Amino acid sequence: MKISKIKVQNYRLLKKFELDLEEDLSLVIGKNNCGKTSLLSILNKFINDKRSSSRSSFTCDDFNIDFQKHLKQKIEENQDFGDNFLGLSLKLFISYDATDDLSNLSKILMDLDPLNTSTVLAFEYSMSDEDYQKFKTAYNEFKILKTAKIEERYSDAGIITPEELAARQILRDQKKQLIFHDFLKNNHQTYFKLRKKSVLFDLAKGIEDDSNFIDLISEGIQVDKIINLNIIEARRDVSNNDKDKTLSFLSSKYYEKKETNSNDSVAIQQFKETLTDTDSQLDAVYENLFKNIVEKVGTFGGVAQGDSVIKIISTLQHRELLKGNTTVMYDHNNEHSLPEHYNGLGYMNLIGMIFEIEVLLADFRREDRENEKPADINLLFIEEPEAHTHPQMQYVFIKNIKNILQAASKGLKPGDIVFNLQTIITTHSSHITAESNFDDIKYFTRKDKNQVIAKNLKDLEKDYVAAGEDKYYKFLKQYLTLNRAELFFADKAIFIEGDTERILLPAMMKKIDQEYPATPLMSQNISVVEVGAYSHIFEKFINFIDIKSLVITDIDGAKEFTSKDKDGKDVVAIKKCRMVDATSITNASLKFFHNGKSESAHYVSLKLDWKILRKNAKKGSWASNRKGRMLIVYQTAETNDDGQAYHGRSFEDAFFHLNKSLLVTPAYEFNSLTEKHLTKFLAGDIDVYDFADDAVGSKPTLAMEILLNSKTDAENKEFSNWQTPAYLKEGLIWLMKD
Q1: Residues sharing a CB contact under 8 Å with residue 140, sequence separation 6 or more, in sequence order
Q2: Which label site among 494, 665, 720, 724 has the fewest CB atoms less than 10 Å from its CB?
Q3: What is the pLDDT of residues 461-511, one digit of tens each?
Q4: Domain parsing of the chain, residue ranges
Q5: Backbone angles phi and psi of 156, in degrees to 5
Q6: Bridge-based pairing state of the strands 87-95 and 2-11
Q7: What's the start-to-end Cα distance of the chain, in Å?
């Protein structure tokens, strides 16, 4: 038995949200503020909240913003309740088979068809039609009174200038806009009610039938035997303060869970017997220790003989003894034992999580409750396990956690309690992501500013396989694992060809920031990925993660050259050439994204807006679209300071065309350039195309030399003695904007 899917409606960013869960472990990843914590929150509030149906832990801010706007419009336009669901909901889709114990689930099953092996648990915080009508009436009365108070408080009395009148009107309008939110904030618990349901899963349609349900609250059916949720939150009580004994406290919690477990009864009994023996020994010690005060008490006498005779005995409690009286130590070089707070926070966090996991596993087994079986489904939610830990620790954690949890739920030895366990782990760690099974990964991304969706990474593999590009997906998976799992957490991405761009890009971004300081590139969460000339291999991935992406490539102009073979016959070959002579391009990525077009004239004529692309989901191809989130830039025609126009074919000739003066200055050293060709270029004997083609010995070295020879001007602007080629500059400016 397992949860196959989670659906959430109208909760914070989870407006219309669906998440497929894996059988064992689901790794939830995504950028900051993309709904990961909201998922934990709604699960906890609905499943673990023991409050009555008349009260809830939900607040006004839990309602999705678009839902609040919809409800406001519906009420102010005096619309009927209709068929719309008004509220928050969490649905757990439960799948089972013939091997499962259905004694608990049978109470909520609504379809006896043996082929239907799914049911839905639904939790709602919603309004009924009756409550909706009451809400409307109360809100309209509140609005009239509140509006009158606003008009009175922010009247135009005493205001003279038009500017003051306009400012006062704006203030009044702002206050009026908040009336609905104020009413909802203070009154939602009066009109929204908690509801728990078992909903029919319509096998024929493959969806839930909300009109066919069992009210679990009115029927008195508890769900804690069906599902048990335990959480390890990101805000863990880990500290290396010498007064803090977090791990030691966890050891006592662990004991409390294990105490009633029959499998550990021998160890528990030994502990209790040792305490009894210690009590007897302490009784004798206490008799001497407290002898003086006991005798003084005895001198006061009493009504009858012996009334004021007391004795002090030892009553060690096995549970209380562990609280504050155990210390977790760690061995240092096999010579000394050091207290827990000597550990770094990373180790303490990792050890603390292991303790917590063991405590929660004991809770799942119901070890502290006699004659009670584990719930049918046990859900463990671990939030951001990477806190305080370095990459190697994160690798160790994710490599081992799945095996540890599987072993615990399936039993390590005969007689162990077996239970169904599913785990959700959320993370911001690229290291944990890279070490994970990609089929377990769930990627959260914003669909718009008020809505988040979840994507299965294994669905991306299906897209590649369907297109006959299995090897591309294999390459992508290896590449992301070894190099760039950080892409999943980036807000924007830059895909570059090689070392030259990688080395120089930060300097170019800095130059853009100096010119446009309002939204600096260097302060944005941008991931730079080196893909060679194979950005087209990443196209499905770029579309999948749906972040603003800049692809930087070379135009690679070419034309047909005719030569003779050994038999004297003409042989036509496509070879690189100057862009002024080019008739075609050889760049595979450019041709892919532009539907196979190879004519150089097409690319030369494109303005920036036409280089912005968007994927057509139905056709599966990319097309120019100003609303697109991907831009491909390549060399364009430019005029340098000497008035010479030139269209570069690669970064090197485009850069040297603009920055010939950098090579003329004696103080600047470029050892990567062949002196013979440099002399010819400066003398005008060869053009920039031949110079870039023949003179550059090492492109990475050249890039480093450009940085080493860079200067800061009198206005403190860095890299001021060279210019960025236009195609790179316009691409970075586009990326800089939201």
Answers
A1: 75
A2: 665
A3: 999 999 999 999 999 988 888 778 899 999 999 999 989 999 999 999 999
A4: 2-22+51-223, 246-422, 648-724
A5: -90, 5
A6: antiparallel
A7: 45
Closest CA to 431 of 492, 494, 385, 498: 385
Question: Would you state the structure tokens that stand for residue 85, as one six-digit string?
Answer: 């669901």
- Closest alpha carbon to 642 in 714, 723, 710: 723
Residue with token string 């023996």: 277
Q: How many CA atoms lie within 13 A of 716 on its CB side?
A: 0
* Maximum C-alpha span of the chain: 136
**Cα-based distances in Å from 67 to 137, 275, 604:** 19, 60, 47
- Per-chain mean pLDDT for the chain: 86
Cβ atoms of 689 and 578 closer than 8 Å = yes
Residue 225 banded pLDDT, cuts 50, 70, 90: very high
Judge whether residue 330 has pLDDT over 70.
no
Q: What are the beta bridge partners of residue 646?
A: 638
Q: Which amino acid is at 562?
A: T
**Under 8 Å between Cβ of 118 and 239:** no
Calculated CA dihedral for residues 511, 515, 517, 520, nearest 10 degrees: -40
Single-letter residue type at 435: E
SS3 content of the chain, % helix, strand, coil (to 5): 45, 20, 35
Task: Tell me what the mean pLDDT of segment 542-553 comes to.
Answer: 95
What is the structure's pLDDT at 51? 56
How would you label 124-145 residue by residue, b for 16+ Cβ within 10 Å and e otherwise? bbbbeeebbeebbeebeebbee
| Structure-token match 């609303």, residue found | 627
Picking from 91, 82, 92, 93, the residue whose alpha carbon sits closest to that of residue 127 is 82
Whole-number pLDDT of residue 265: 62
pLDDT for residue 387 is more than 80: no
